[in-house]
Write a structure and sequence with these properties.
By secondary structure, this protein is mostly helical. The chain contains 11 helices and no strands. It has helices at about 1-20, 20-30, 40-60, 65-70, 75-95, 100-110, 115-120, 125-130, 130-145, 150-175, 175-220. The termini are far apart.
Length: about 220
C-alpha cells in the first residue's frame, strides 16, 4: 500500500511539474503586474495556487468524464489549448517596453482588486500556470488509474502530489520579487522574455502532439 502511495505521488509530480513550470509562471506574473504591492502579489499567489489546485483536481478525477460528455478528445484539447498557450507566449514576447504614461496607467489599473482577481485566474492560472498541457496530462494520469477502480492509496497519493505542485506554485509566485531583486531590472526582463519564449514553444509543442495524434487516428481509420 505504501509503495502504491509513493508511486502515485512521484508519478503526479514528475508528470505535472515540468509542464506547470512554476518558476516560469512566477516571472510571467511579474511582467503582467509589475507595480503590484508585495501584499497584492502575496494575495495573487494564494489565488493562483488555489485556482491551480482546483483545476488539477477536477482534471485528475472528472476531466475524462467531462470531455466524454462534450465529445471532446484529448488530441483536440491539446490542439486548441496549445494555440491559446502559444498565443499567450507570443503576446508576451511582442509586448513593448512601457512608457511612463503606460506605467502610470498600469499602476492605477493594478491597484483595482477586481482586476487583480481577474488576472489571477485568466491568464495567470489558465492557461499560463495550468494550461491545456497540464490538464491533458492530469486527465491522462487520472484515466491511467488501476482498472479495478480508484483505491484509497491512489486517491491519497494523487492529493499529495497535486498539493506538492500547488505549494511549489505558491512559493515561486510569493517569492518571485526576491529573485527579481537579485537579477536586477535588465536581468529580470531577459528572464521574462526567455520564459515567454519557452511558453510559446510549449504551446507549439502541445499543438504538434495533438495534430500528430489526430493524424494517426485518421491514418488508422483509413487503414
Amino acid at each position: 500500500m505504501l509503495e502504491e502511495l509513493i508511486k502515485t505521488v512521484l508519478l503526479i509530480v514528475a508528470g505535472l511539474f515540468p509542464i506547470v513550470n512554476p518558476p516560469a509562471s512566477a516571472f510571467i506574473m511579474l511582467s503582467m503586474v509589475p507595480h503590484a504591492t508585495p501584499a497584492e502579489r502575496a494575495t495573487m499567489a494564494r489565488q493562483i495556487a488555489f485556482n491551480s489546485l482546483a483545476i488539477l483536481l477536477v482534471s485528475l478525477f472528472v476531466g475524462a468524464y467531462v470531455l466524454s460528455f462534450f465529445g471532446i478528445s484529448i488530441p483536440v484539447l491539446r490542439v486548441a489549448g496549445g494555440i491559446v498557450v502559444a498565443m499567450a507566449g507570443w503576446n508576451l514576447l511582442q509586448s513593448p517596453a512601457s512608457s511612463e504614461s503606460e506605467d502610470h496607467a498600469q499602476v492605477v489599473d493594478a491597484h483595482h482588486a477586481g482586476d487583480l482577481r481577474a488576472k489571477a485566474f485568466y491568464p495567470l492560472t489558465l492557461p499560463i500556470t495550468v494550461g491545456p498541457g497540464s490538464i491533458a496530462v492530469a486527465i491522462a494520469l487520472g484515466t491511467g488509474s488501476p482498472r479495478e477502480g480508484l483505491s484509497l492509496m491512489h486517491i491519497i497519493g494523487a492529493l499529495i502530489g497535486v498539493a506538492l505542485i500547488t505549494v511549489s506554485i505558491y512559493l515561486c509566485m510569493r517569492f518571485a520579487t526576491h529573485i527579481e531583486r537579485l537579477l536586477g531590472a535588465v536581468g529580470t526582463q531577459v528572464a521574462m522574455r526567455l520564459f515567454a519564449f519557452v511558453i510559446f514553444c510549449i504551446g507549439v509543442q502541445i499543438v504538434w502532439i495533438g495534430l500528430s495524434e489526430l493524424l494517426l487516428t485518421v491514418h488508422a481509420g483509413q487503414g
